[in-house]
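ok so I'm stuck.
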Amino acid sequence: DSFNGQVKGSIAMSMGAGGGDMTPQFGAYELKLKLNVDKVAQESLSLFLGILDGYKKQTLKGASYEVKISGARFGVNPSISPLTTF
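replied:
not stuck anymore, here's the structure
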C-alpha cells in the first residue's frame, strides 16, 4: 500500500437537544497516529503531510509519522507532539 497506518484514541461526546432533535456534541479528544507513506503518496499528500513534517522519519520506501494529536474541542488548534507509546 502506498498509504497505511493505525489510529487509536478517544473523543468525548454527549448528546444534546438542538432544533427538536438530539445532536452529538464533541468535546476533548486524543488521537494517536502511526502512518506509513511511500514516496509517490508523499508527493500527492504533501499539503496534508506538511503539517506533520517535523515528526517525519525517512524510510527506505518513503516516510513514517508517529504523533499524538489532542485538543479541548474541535474547532480549536490541536496540540501535536511525538508519539511515545501506542
